[in-house]
Amino acid sequence: MRERLGGAIAPTLAFAAVLVLWQASVWLLRPPPFILPGIGQVIARLVAFGPNWAGHVVATIEGIALGFLAAVVFGTAGAVLIVSSDTLRRAITPLLVTIQIVPKIAFAPLILVWFGIGLTSRATIAFLVAFFPVLVNTAVGLTQIEPDLLDLARSIKARPAWVFFRIRFPSSLPYFFAGLRVASTLAVIGAVIGEFVGSDVGLGYLIVIANNQIDTALGLAAIFLISLIGLGLYGAVVLTERLCTPWAGGEGGGLETSL
User: How much is the pTM?
Assistant: First the structure.
């Protein structure tokens, strides 16, 4: 507990320093509220919006959750297929890399045309953004196995399914969760992008409305809530990782790439 409290001091001080710098800039420079409102103004706007937050928060969480879960399921399944077949890996890897190179916001207008305004579009964009880290990290984890373990499995003539569930899958868990940590943050970005492009509800939609109305305090309040949602999802992934991989110390072992 003492170590955890000690580890929390540095990030807490960093956040506090940012808030102090923000408020000091408002006091010293006195910018117009539509350029940089004070912390008190943002809090007042957050409170004044009151019950109206509920629907927008729920809509954003739905888009993030569905996109993230789809990325986990399809990313993991794709990694298993890639590892299990060299031919399949050579066939689809260039396609996956090509899709990843294209900025996901370029797909947003097309997705809006295909699925219309709603949850499906938001979740699809979140899925596209979060899918690749899960796929890459899980595939790397499934291949980074101690050769001695595989030799032992061959010596006892273990079945492929036994090797996968008893050796490959447990060994890949640190890499898998490293991919989930990256994907959890990217899913938030993807869902908000979807709300920017075409939505009539959600915190991203509120940011667009606040920008059109030059209501900077409302936009910053929405950004604050998005940050809380993202931190909550990331924390849930880290907690699950610690429960599932106690031997790894919760640090993960993957590439943590956001390609």
Answer: 0.82
